């Protein structure tokens, strides 16, 4: 979607609160790679406004797709390392500033996508969490590192270990959000921020984003450095065929409480 110098990217999955399907992850990567290519060539786009359709940002992953691949280790790994991380990496690598306008549900995949953005503003009614422990599986390593870096480790632990769901006011206080607005004011506020960014130097924005990305991997933080992360990833999907993983997915799809 085009709007002057501002590219509008909308997450849209009708009837599922914009839960991310596998196709949507691939499309997210394609869209942000195209925006990045433009930034390196014509420089038309000065800012990206990322939002969800119909009053929600993103309710997580499309769990209806999960039984088709999640219980096979290699297919599970390909899903997270290629499709999900491919989409998130494209957002992270984008040198054009990204403003996320968040309302309604922002769960799991939604929190991950928001964590990859530069400016996050939300409606007062927005709700945030990653309650995948109820589904019997962990957050993938790269995704967990991204979320912990944006949310803060304490909040990430609360979401992942306690399945906590937090409101926008709480996440504004904890530093994840730059602003919280009444729902009717969110769109205009996010647009105004995008317009302010679009008026500034695109070169300065590009170089600032490159510097901030580089600062996320200092040698002192060896536990999150790329080489160490690769070692973690090697065994990260061994749980694919585990009973708890199967029970969690089945319980969600059959609308019952999981018995672990």
From TrEMBL:
Which organism is this protein's natural source? Ottowia oryzae
The family database entries (PANTHER family) matched by this protein are listed as: ENOYL-COA HYDRATASE, MITOCHONDRIAL (PTHR11941:SF54), ENOYL-COA HYDRATASE-RELATED (PTHR11941)
Report which superkingdom the organism of origin falls in.
Answer: Bacteria
Q: Which family does it belong to?
A: Belongs to the enoyl-CoA hydratase/isomerase family.
Q: Where are the transmembrane segments?
A: none
Cite a single GO BP annotation.
fatty acid beta-oxidation
Q: Kindly give the PROSITE patterns that the UniProt entry links to this protein.
A: ENOYL_COA_HYDRATASE
Q: Check the record and name the Pfam families matching this protein.
A: ECH_1
* Protein name (database record): Enoyl-CoA hydratase
What would be an example GO MF term here?
catalytic activity
InterPro entries of this UniProt entry? Answer: ClpP/crotonase-like_dom_sf, Enoyl-CoA_hyd/isom_CS, Enoyl-CoA_hydra/iso
